[in-house]
Amino acid sequence: MTLHRLILREIRHRKVNFALSVLGAAVAVAAVLSTVGALRAYDRETEAVIDEMEEATKAEMAKLEDEIRKSMKGLGFNLFIFPEGQDLSEVYAEGFASRTMPEEYVTKLAESGVVTVNHLLPSLTKKLEWPEQKRTVILIGVRGEVPIAHRSPKAPLIDPVEPGHLVMGYELHRSLGLKKGDTVTFMEREFTIDDTYEARGSKDDITLWMNLGECQEMLDMKGEINAIQALECNCATVDRLGEIRAELGEILPNTQIIETQSTALARAEARNQAAATSRAQIEAKEEQRARLRAEREKLAGWLLPVATLVSMIWIGLLAFINVRERLPEIGILRAIGVKGRTILGAFLGRAVLAGVVGGVIGVVVAKVVKLPSVDSGPIIESGEWIAAIVTAPLLAALAAWLPSLAAAQRDPAEVLRHD
Amino acid sequence: MTESNPNTAASPETELSPSALSVANVSKRYRTPDGNVQAIDDVSLSLAPGDFVALHGPSGCGKSTLLLMAGGLLSPDSGVLEIGGEDPYALGAEARAAFRAERVGFVFQQFHLIPFLDVLDNVLVGELAGTSTNGEFRDRARELLDRFQLGHRLHHVPSKLSIGEQQRVALARAFLRSPALILADEPTGNLDAENAAIILEHLGNFAATGDGAVLMVTHDDRAKAAAGRSVEMREGRLV
Ligand SMILES: Nc1ncnc2c1ncn2[C@@H]1O[C@H](COP(=O)(O)OP(=O)(O)OP(=O)(O)O)[C@@H](O)[C@H]1O
Ligand SMILES: [Mg+2]
User: Fold this and answer.
1) Could you give the angle at the alpha carbon of A319 between the alpha carbons of A318 and A324, nearest 5°?
2) A13, A141, B95, B144: which could join A212 in a potential S-S bond, CB 3.0 to 4.6 Å?
3) Alpha carbon of A264 to those of A64, A259, B83: distances in Å?
């Protein structure tokens, strides 16, 4: 005859009391674990939802970026580098800058290892009277593209004009009846017309293009230019202009940079807008889920202790009933010399067993049962269910402690006298 | 003390060895909020090994109280009580429990079998008291149960047994460790004549071996007759 045999036989005999104790432990463990597990599942779900939204945003951004890249191709120059201090309202009114900067700036830029811009084109522009023809023209001195030192050469966007040659806008050549190959006098010099442009409906139609060096010489502005045109690199990110300004500002501190409107720009703006909207949506989603989570956490906050306490009271009560039922048994066992702590062990052992069985059942239930409002089942980490199976019998023993102690200290004479 | 009490006349040879039970001027008073009850009043009694003594008297005269004190379950207010020459109340609670397990066997009117243990386990339940749980009493239990005509019922629970059979299981449990003293409180009180006779015969046989003594509380005249000696009690005193 051993103690564990006594415990097991008694359990088999009083199945209902034991089953109810097991139920108490199981319900508490299941409640605690599924709450914790559901919270974690909810967190994982949130992560997945946010990840998915971010993924979708990224894909959308990539698509927009690609469109921007495509529309950037063949765009022509869209960046103007002007001397520092140039009044931009004058530029917008006149179409060019009146202030000048040294021509070496372009060389400096080309040799600097710049990455955010392409195709550097220095120019000197001036509006003046064509003395021989008595009409206003815009004279632009160009020297062709300055190759960027560290890059492989690209096809230039604009061809240079040779000294002694001119390229003429539509309005000029049409009204003067000139064509390619004709010669013309401009400011007392002879020029051959290299090319005549079709109508562009802009200042270009009253523009004369000539060689930059020749232009500087004629205007007595040797070594000076008033703009460098450039094409922004299509590798730039969302804040293109900021990036370009940051880089160019380092190389050419005494300049300012403007970007002209274009479809590419509009698309870039749209992309920025879309990015901001997505970010706001993700944030809203995160916030909504965080709020729901906080509510559930609050629920868990009182559910866990209440479930544990109620279950312990329940187990304690059942232990008390069990002790009451077994008083004659306790009396005779004590009379024949069974020690008080053996009696204590019999009752505590029973509670521990109820805790173990209840704990295991609780874990299984928590793993199987899906709570509503969480799509995936609860996620319970192995440490947690092991802790539950260890803790449940300890708490059950604690709950049954007082009744068990009362049983162990019961005076057998008290029980047996009335026989 | 033996001279002063005519009921304790013992044979000369047993007087040399320690008596199975020696009660000397023992008193016990129950204190209750409604007043005190002098349950035992200066009682002296001695049982030598081999004695089979019946204790009788009106209800409430203190028989059960005396039996519980004799069994080391209820300490006297005054006087000295010895079992096999040793005072159980000089021991601590744990040691006294071990002492009871070894020296005393109890039989009650209500049998007090453990309802969820089978017959064999009920007899062996005393193993829970002590160090030896290696089955040294198994053979002894089977032998006792065979002797009590219960060899074929070893694995039945008490509720499946007749009243007489249940009391024989309780008797086997009391005999398991061959105690020096068997204390029986109305062991035949719930039994018919036939079963009562069987129990009395076994108690008589136990005493007859001369290894231990039996003190039996009873109202039953046949039981008194079966005992070698009869002691009467009134209002806490032996008469
Ligand atoms: N715990 C107690 N508190 C107060 N009085 C008690 C207590 N136990 C017993 N008594 C009283 O002590 C006296 C002796 O009781 P005891 O049970 O020993 O009598 P008994 O001779 O065994 O009676 P019965 O033949 O009815 O079993 C009785 O008057 C009883 O009421
Ligand atoms: Mg009584």
Assistant:
1) 95
2) A141
3) 10, 11, 112
Q: Which of 3.40.50.300, 1.20.1250.20, 2.60.40.10, 3.40.50.150 is the CATH number of B14-238?
A: 3.40.50.300
- Bridge partners (DSSP) listed for residue A167: A195, A209
What's the token pair of residue A354?
């109820």
| Predicted local distance difference test score (pLDDT) of residue A115 | 75
Name the token pair of B176: 């398991």
Angle at B221 between CA B219 and CA B226, to 5 degrees: 110
Count of all residues that appear for chain B in the document: 239
pLDDT digits (tens, 9 = 90+) for A15-33: 999 999 999 999 999 999 8
Return the domain boundaries, chain B: 14-238
Sign of the four-CA dihedral A119, A124, A126, A130: negative
The residue count of chain A comes to 419
CA of A337 to the centre of ligand 1 (A): 23
**Residue A173 pLDDT class (50, 70, 90 cuts):** very high
pLDDT per residue as tens digits for the range B159-168: 999 999 999 9
Residue A158 φ/ψ region, left for φ over 0, alpha for ψ in the -120 to 50 degree band, beta for the rest = beta
* Interchain proximity A337–B126, CB inside 8 Å: yes
Which tens digits make up the pLDDT trace of B164-198?
A: 999 999 999 999 999 999 999 999 999 999 999 99
Distance between CA atoms of A14 and A22, rounded to whole angstroms? 13
Predicted pLDDT of residue B89: 96
Does the beta carbon of B108 lie under 8 angstroms from any beta carbon of chain A?
yes
Beta-carbon pairs below 8 A across chains A and B: 99
Residue A134, phi then psi, degrees to nearest 5: 55, 50
Tell me the mean pLDDT in the region B65-79: 95
Sort B111 into a burial class: Cβ within 10 Å, 0-12 / 13-18 / 19+: buried
Ligand 2 (ion): residues with CB under 5 Å are B 64
Query: Is the distance from CB of B176 to CB of B141 less than 8 angstroms?
Result: yes
Residue B13 pLDDT exceeds 50? no
CA nearest neighbour of B131 among B167, B89, B98: B98
Q: What residue's CA is closest to ligand 1, atom 6?
A: B30
Structure tokens at B43: 């009682």
The sign of the torsion formed by the CA atoms of B51, B57, B59, B61 equals: negative
Cα(A409)–Cα(A396) distance, rounded to whole angstroms?
A: 20
- To the nearest whole angstrom, how far is the Cα of A388 from the nearest Cα of chain B? 31
Q: What is the spatial distance between Cα A221 and Cα B180, in angstroms, rounded to a whole number?
A: 137
Task: At A256, list the tokens.
Answer: 């300012």
Here the ipTM equals: 0.90
The closest of B72, B51, B48, B45 to B232, measured between CA atoms, is B45
All residues at 6 or more sequence positions from A197 whose CB lies less than 8 Å from its CB, including other chains: A167, A168, A169, A170, A204, A205
Phi then psi dihedrals of residue A82, to 5 deg: -115, 160
pLDDT exceeds cutoff 70 at A349: yes
- Nearest alpha carbon to residue A139 among A148, A129, A131, A147: A129
| pLDDT at A138 exceeding the cut of 90 | yes
Helix (H) or strand (E) holding A56: helix A15-72
In this structure, the dihedral spanned by the alpha carbons of residues B199, B205, B211 and B216, taken in order and rounded to 10 degrees, is 40
Distance of alpha carbon A191 from alpha carbon A185, whole angstroms:
6
Contact A138, A208 (CB under 8 A): yes
A336 touches chain B (CB under 8 A): yes
Torsion sign (Cα): A319, A320, A324, A330: positive
